[in-house]
Amino acid sequence: MLQSATRNISFTLDAYNKIHDLKYVFVVVLGLLFPIIIIANGLIIYTVCLERKLHKPMYLFICNLACINLYGGTAVSPFIIATFLMEDYEITWFSCLVQIYFIYTYVSCDIANLTVMAYDRYISICYPLKYDKIVTPTKVILGIVLTWLLPFFRVTISLSLTANFDICGVIIEKVYCDNYSIVKLACSDILYYNIYGSTIIVFVVVLPFFIIIYSYVKITLICLKLSKRGRVKLFSTCVPHLIALFNFIIGSSFELLQSRFDMRHVPYIIRVILSLYFLILSPLINPVLYGIRTQAIKEAIMRKLCHTFYQRQTVVRCVT
């Protein structure tokens, strides 16, 4: 009976009430950033897919990261804009679970792809003569597929456990649903879920993080043995990935701290901005970063834009 009632409940996203006076600021800012996220990531995907010279593992993983950013960037921005405009700050149980699914699969796919990219850079720099034999097209495809399948499988299991909780509260102090906020509202004992969650964090976050750190420690040791020019050249291929990695760590750390600890001493507006950091800024920064810092992608984008501009100029001259 209680579970049946739980499925019919709606949660109140209380953060909207706390920042109601700033709603138009959020609507305008997100309304400007959301199209940029779509265009920037779409441009990376379009360029890598059509440019044959970019059909190499490193660029394919960058393209996959852009796909993940595109997926994650659409997870909450339209929802927040619509919620502010309609001034309806409630969300149904089912919609809440769907939103959690989008957010958590995005985060899991992101860290999985960053781990694969670190491994690719590690093999490329530490074992350059064996690179083509180790990083084969089949392994590249398998790596990309697994960065999507494993997170979706893992989140499906986690969310199925959450869906079976009996809920005794309806107030979520955020602008979107997150799994731990739902878990904290559960009536039943959540000890087993905390054990499961801690185990998942070790395998999904901690282990990939150590793989990435190990990869870049080895890369750094190799680079230290090279000439200054060689170090600059090698590190130039790693800088975008490292910035994307630290950007992800900073954003997810903000979210983890807010979910697990009492942050009432922090102004509400700051808490809302920090909670949106990795869902808005990461999908925005990453494509701009790779478009500027990765020379091959930058040149390919410029060629595509110049070619498109030239074609349009030709059409205009012919019409006139």
TrEMBL record:
Places the protein is found: Cell membrane
Transmembrane regions: 24-46, 58-85, 91-119, 140-157, 195-217, 238-256, 268-292
Entry keyword Membrane: yes
Domain G-protein coupled receptors family 1 profile: 40-290
SUPFAM superfamilies named in the record: Family A G protein-coupled receptor-like (SSF81321)
Keywords, comma-separated and alphabetical: Cell membrane, Disulfide bond, G-protein coupled receptor, Glycoprotein, Membrane, Olfaction, Receptor, Sensory transduction, Transducer, Transmembrane, Transmembrane helix
GO molecular function: G protein-coupled receptor activity; odorant binding; olfactory receptor activity
Membrane association type: Multi-pass membrane protein
Database matches in PANTHER family: G_PROTEIN_RECEP_F1_2 DOMAIN-CONTAINING PROTEIN, OLFACTORY RECEPTOR
UniProt similarity note: Belongs to the G-protein coupled receptor 1 family.
Listed name of the protein: Olfactory receptor
The species this protein was found in: Cyprinus carpio (Common carp)
